[in-house]
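Session log. Operator J.P. requested a structure for one protein chain; no other inputs attached. Running the standard single-chain path with C-alpha cell output.
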Amino acid sequence: MTTLSLQHGNSDMSPFGYVGYGLITNGVLKDAATACQFGEMAVQLCEQFDNADVRGMTNFLFAADVHSWSCPIREADTYYENAYKYGMEAGNWLTVGFMMMQSGSDRLTYGKNLEDLYAIAKNHAAFLEQIKSLDNLDALRVGVIQPIRQLLGLTKTPFTFDDDNFSEAQYLQKYANAPYHLAWFYSVKIRHAYLFENPAAYPDLIPHLSIIENAVSSHAKVPSSVFYVALMHLSLFETAIENYQRQHHWQALIPLEERLNRWAKACPENILHKCLLIQAEKARLNQEKTDAIELYEQAITHAQTNQYGYEEALANELAAKFYLEWGKEKVAAGYMQEAYYCYAHWGAKAKTDDLEKRYPQLLQPILQQQKIGFNAFETIPTIISTSTSTSTSAFKNGLSEVLDFTSVLKAAQAISSSLELDELIAQLTRIILENSGAKKSVVILPENNQWQVRAITFIDHQSNFQIDVKTILEPQLLDTCQDVPKKLINYVRNTRETLIINNCQTNIPGVIADYMLEHQPQSVLCTPIIKQGHLLGIIYLENKLTSGVFTNERLQVINLLSSQAAISLENSQLYQKAQQALQDLQTAQLQIVQSEKMSALGNLVAGVAHEMNNPLGFISATLQQANPTLNDLVEHLKLYQETFPEPGKKITNHAEDIDLDYSLEDLPKMIDSMTMACDRICNISNSLRTFSRIDKDYKVPFNIHEGIDSTILILKHRLKANEQRPAIKVITNYGELAVIECFPGQLNQVFMNILANAIDALEELNSGRSFRDIEANPNWIAITTSIENSQAKIQIADNAKGMSEEIRNKIFDHLFTTKAVGKGTGLGLAIARQIVEETHHGKLSCNSILGKGTEFVIEIPIS
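Structure written below.
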C-alpha cells in the first residue's frame, strides 16, 4: 500500500499504509527516525480524508508503536485521545480496545499519578468487559490495573499482583502459550521486582526479557524492561560470590547498555536518565566515587526535567544507598527523603511504606511528622504569642484547614529540590511567603561566626496596581541591616523560641525597638530553624496590614516547611562541601595528569634530542674537518696532473671508469649537502628541546612562535600525506609578537592538545571520503597570532565538521569527550583551560559552526 501510494498518489487508506510502514521500520529495521517521519506524515495526511476508521487506527499505531521511540512518551497521549475519539466515531471497538490497554501501559511507564490512572483504567476495564473484549481486558488487568494496585498497597504483598480477584498463577496458566500476553505480564513484573528490591526473583525474570523484545518489539515496554534487567544484573553482580558469576552478569550488561545508548540517541527524553543511572551504578561498583556522584546527579536531573517522577525517585533512592554505603548518612538522608517525596507524589503508598521499613533512620523527620499526625505546631519547642487581638484560634483539623496535604507536600518538595544555597533560600522565602499570609519573608543564616540576612522576599505593590514578588539575595550583616528588627531576631537566636507579635504589643522587654516602632507591622513571626538541636538559621515573617495573620493552622504549615528547610540547609552545606571536595579532586587530577603528561613527553622528547645530539655533533665536526682535507687532496691531485701530463694508459682508464672529473666537481657539493642536512637535524633537535623545556617555578621570557613551530614539527608525521589523504596544510599568519613572560612547557602542551584535536577532527571528517574528494576540498589548519589590548592572541582554526552548541558548551568540562572509548580521556581541554586561565590569567575560548569548522582562541597577558 505504501509503494502504491507513493507511485500513484494517496487515497483515504494511504495513512494506514504509511503508519504501518513506520511500525515495520521501527520494530524490524530499527530505524526510529524514518519510522517517526512516516508516522507523522500518516497522522497529518489522515486529517485530509473523512475516514474516522482510518484516522483512529493511524493515530493508535503511531502512538503505540512509533511515536515514543523518537519523542517524549507522554506526548503520545494526544494521539491516544484522537484514536479514542475517531474509534468511537467509527464504532471500531478493536481500535478503542487496543487504545485503552496500550495507553494505560504507556502512562504507567512514564509515571502518571497512580490514583488518576487507576480511575481511568477501571473505566476502561468496564468498557472492555461490556464489549466482551476479554483478552484485551486481561492484558489491561495484568499490565496496568494489578501493578497499580500493587503500588497503592492493595495486593496481598508488595511482591505480587495477587489479590481476591486476580491470580498470577491462573493468568500464566491461561496464557502459557501466548507470548503477547506473557510480555504484558513480565514487563511490569520485571520493573516492580526491582522497585521493591526482590533479588530472589531476578534470576527467574531476566530470561523473560526475550519474550518482551520479540512479542512487543515496538512497544515502550521494551526499553523500560531492558533498563530494569540491566539494573538486576548489576545487583546480582554485587552479591555474586563466584568470579564466573560476576563475569557473567557484567558481560550480560554490555548488549543491554548498547541498546539503551542507541535508543537514547534517538530519544534522550525517554532514555538518557536510564543510561546515566546505569553508569552511576557501575561507577559505584567500581569504587569510582567522583564519577558516581556526578552521574547520580545527572540521572536525577534528567529524570526530573523529563517528568519521569518515579525514576527520579529511584535515582534518588540508589544515590542514598551509595552515600549510606560510603558512610555519609546525612547526605543519604537528603536523597532518601527526596525519593520518598517523589514516590509519594506518584501515589505509590506501598513503596513509601517499604522505604519506611527499610530506612527509618534516614526518614526520621517524615516519620516524626506522621507520628504526630502532621500536627507540626506541636514540634515548635516554645511559642510565645502576644496580642490584643482574638483572631488567633486553636487549630481545628490540622493541616487541612490551610492547605491540603498534597499542596504542602509539593511545597516541601520544592524546597528540598535545590542543593545550591542561594537557590534554596530564594525558594524557601518565596514558598513560605505564599503559604503563610506574610507580605515579607526573610532568612537569616550564620556565616563564619557572623549572622547574615541572606534573602528577603516581599510583595511589591506597583503604581499601576500590579503585584510583583521580588527576592533580594545580597548578604547583609544582621547587625547593620535596616530591613529587619534586629533585637527581635537576636532574642529568637538566643532563646530558640518562636515568637509571634500582633499589633506591635508584647510583654517581652526590649524586642520592640527602632524597626518595629518605625514600620509598625501588624503581624510578626520569628522562628528558629533547628535540626537535631543545632540552630541552622532563622525565619522572620511580617504583615504590615493585617493583625493575627499567623494562626495556629498556618504555624503548622510554616513549621513543616521549616523542618524541611532544616534538612535542605544541612544537605546544601554538605553538598557545597562535596562540590568543593570534587573540585579539589578534579584540580588535583588535572595537575597530576598535566604533570605526568608533560614529564613523560618532555623526558621522551628531551631524550630523543639528547641522543640525536651525540652522533649529530660527531658528524658535523667530521664534515667540518673533511671539507678542507678534501680540498687539499683535490689540489694535490691537480698538481700530479700538471707535473705528469702523460699519466699512462692504466691511470687514464681508471679515471674514465670512475668519472674523475665529475667526482671532483660533485664531491664538494655532496659535502655541502650533508652539512645542510646536519644543520636541519640540529634545528629539529633545538625545536624538540624548545617543546620539552622544563618549566621553572616562575615565568620566563618565551617566543610563542618557536613554541608553535616546535609543536607543528612534532606533529609533522600526522600532517603529511598518506595513502588515504593528501597532506594537511598548516597556514601560519604570524604577527609581530613580543617575547612574553610565561611557562613555556605548559603553553606548548596547550598548543599540542588543540592541534592534535584539530587533526583528529579532520581525520574524522575524512572518514569515508575518497582521496580525490579530499584533494578537491583540502584539509587545513590556520594559526594566526597578533597583539590585541596588551594581550598575545593565538587563533588556531580548522575546516573540519565543527560541533553543535550543546557540545561546544561542554568541551572544557572535566572528563567530557566526544571521542570513542579508549581514544580520549576528556582531560586535554580541561587541562588547557586551567593552564591558560588559572596559571597564566588569560582566556581560552572556542568558536564553532556545525559543518564549517572550529576555532580556539588563546589570549595571554603580555605583562
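Operator note: The chain has a mean pLDDT of 82.
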